[in-house]
Design brief:
The structure holds 2 protein chains of 2 kinds.
Chain A (H helix, E strand, L loop, with lengths): L1 H30 L7 H14 L1 H33 L1 H16 L2 H12 L3 H25 L3 H9 L4 H39 L4 H11 L2 H30 L5
Helix pairs in contact in A: 2-10, 3-4, 3-6, 3-8, 4-6, 5-6, 5-8, 6-8, 8-9, 8-10, 9-10
Chain B lengths: L3 E11 L7 E12 L4 E5 L6 H9 L6 E5 L9 E4 L11 H6 L8 H10 L15 H14 L4 E5 L7 H17 L3 E6 L2 H7 L2 E5 L6 E6 L10 H14 L8
Parallel strand pairs in B: 3-7, 3-8, 5-6, 6-7
Antiparallel strand pairs in B: 1-2, 1-4, 8-9
Helix pairs in contact in B: 3-4, 4-5, 6-7
The chains are: A mainly alpha, B alpha/beta.
């Protein structure tokens, strides 16, 4: 029963993608405009860009920036989030800062970072981190606030060390919040990175998209976008979902 | 291990954060527990029994008075069976027991404890998949496993049906006979207290004080005879009218 249900879902997913491609094909055929190339042309463009090494290079550069800024934002965000979640005074003090940083438009931070630090790699990474950090802090702070006091008391009465309390009592409770921050973080960061690259770098996906825009090369624009979406999907299916399954297997 | 001397002169707590209303939980509470004694604490709901256990466990340090464990150089180890089992849901039954050790415990120790509570088959299960009775047994093993100087048990059989409670109680009792720790056991059930304890301390409604301190004269090998326990219970109720209102 379960496997037939799974098969049915896969069939539905394939059919919906096929329908989307069909609509696209019909529209492109009907409009016959260079601004809406057919799926086939996009696929050929993708293949050529991959073989020439151009797409893998720019994709790789962007992914490296993503990895760097994402790791920094998550590490700092988790640490600050836990501290604010556990310390009411600090939380009350810094709450306004968080609200301000949450509401500064991404574009403003990016421009300010480039103006203050120049068009350099570190300014680009810093701009992304500043944009993402408040989101991580707010999510993790919620997690730290909702820690189970009963379990913390249990750990205290059995004289758990700080390290053991963190590993066995606190971290498993924070895990769903970290995963939520990871998912929303990936989605947010890669959108910001493209803007950062567009405005101040000479390589990466954002830079390339900018050039395609100037040349009105919609086929390349779409081919690069799909490559990026595919990579994010691979991270989700190949890394995040298995991690979720492994760490959440104790749930009923 | 020497005597545990408990002297709490005052314990209050604020009822709500935005008001200045205080609840006077404990006033002039004094008693001594001797090593390897099984002491039951009996008192009405809300009289402060759990608060007292938390104070002994070091979880609550906001009180006036002294709890002297007799060991100035080191803190005595404490096994605490809470009212709800408080198992870590992401660890298996076996891991929940192993996690309270500083170093990896000998496998045969865990095996024998699991056997004593009839839990060997469930050792790799996660707590949420177990019945409440099984979870309580895991919590009891966890407390016994570290071979603590003091064992605190806060109504560990509450909300279990009568046959399950009886079964877990007899398992606990035989485990204690093998490893006779100093036990402070909170209960509402006078029959349970008589069946288990060397001494029963009756506590007043808050502010909590000792009302009566009674030694149970029934020999250990006769504790399984329900008629003896019932006779002693009747005797207690007749001769100590002050405890009637507590039960």
């Amino acid at each position: 029963m379960q496997s037939s249900g799974r098969f049915r879902n896969q069939l539905l997913a394939t059919a919906s993608i096929a329908l989307l491609l069909a609509i696209w094909q019909v529209l492109a055929f009907a409009l016959h405009s260079p601004t809406l190339p057919t799926p086939g042309l996009v696929a050929i463009t993708f293949w050529r860009a991959t073989l020439s090494g151009e797409l893998p290079y720019h994709l790789g550069v962007t992914l490296l920036r993503l990895l760097g800024s994402f790791s920094l934002a998550m590490l700092l965000g988790c640490a600050i989030g836990v501290v604010l979640g556990k310390n009411k005074t600090l939380d009350a003090f810094f709450d306004n800062w968080l609200v301000i940083f949450l509401n500064i438009p991404a574009l403003v931070t990016i421009i300010l970072c480039y103006v203050w630090f120049g068009l350099v790699e570190s300014a680009a990474i810093l701009a992304v981190v500043i944009n993402k950090l408040p989101n991580v802090i707010v999510t993790i702070r919620e997690g730290a606030r909702s820690l189970d006091k009963d379990l913390l008391e249990m750990a205290q009465s059995y004289r758990f060390s700080k390290r053991k309390t963190f590993l066995y009592v606190i971290w498993p409770q924070l895990h769903p919040f970290v995963m939520a921050a990871t998912r929303s973080g990936l989605a947010l960061i890669w959108k910001i990175i493209l803007v950062v690259e567009l405005l101040g770098r000479s390589n990466g996906m954002g830079y390339q998209l900018h050039i395609f825009f100037q040349l009105f090369d919609v086929a390349s624009l779409l081919a690069y976008s799909f490559a990026f979406v595919a990579v994010i999907q691979i991270i989700e299916v190949g890394l995040l979902k298995p991690l979720d399954r492994k760490t959440q297997r104790w749930r009923r | 291990m020497s005597d545990i001397r408990i002297h709490i002169s005052n314990k209050t707590y604020v009822l709500a954060h935005d008001t200045a209303q205080f609840h006077h939980a404990i006033a002039e509470l004094d008693f001594i527990v001797h090593p390897h004694q099984f002491v039951c604490l009996v008192g009405p709901s809300g009289c402060g029994k759990t608060t007292l256990l938390n104070m002994i466990a070091g979880l609550d340090q906001h009180y006036q008075g002294r709890i002297d464990m007799g060991q100035a150089d080191k803190n005595p180890s404490i096994g605490y069976v809470f009212q709800n089992p408080r198992l870590l849901p992401w660890l298996s039954v076996r891991q929940n027991i192993e996690v309270v050790f500083d170093r990896t415990p000998p496998a045969n120790l865990i095996d024998s404890l699991l056997d004593s509570m009839q839990l060997r088959e469930a050792q790799h299960q996660y707590p949420e998949r177990l019945s409440l009775g099984m979870q309580r047994r895991v919590a009891i093993i966890r407390a016994f496993a570290i071979n603590p100087d003091i064992l605190l048990m806060d109504e560990p059989f509450v909300s279990l049906d009568a046959p399950t409670a009886r079964q877990v109680r007899s398992l606990l009792y035989s485990l204690w006979l093998q490893r006779p720790h100093t036990v402070l056991f909170v209960t509402h059930d006078l029959r349970e207290a008589i069946a288990l304890a060397d001494r029963v301390i009756f506590l007043s409604p808050s502010p909590m004080q000792v009302l009566s301190d009674i030694t149970v004269p029934i020999a250990r090998d006769q504790r399984h005879e329900e008629s003896r326990i019932e006779i002693f219970r009747e005797h207690l109720l007749q001769n100590h009218p002050e405890i009637k209102g507590l039960l």
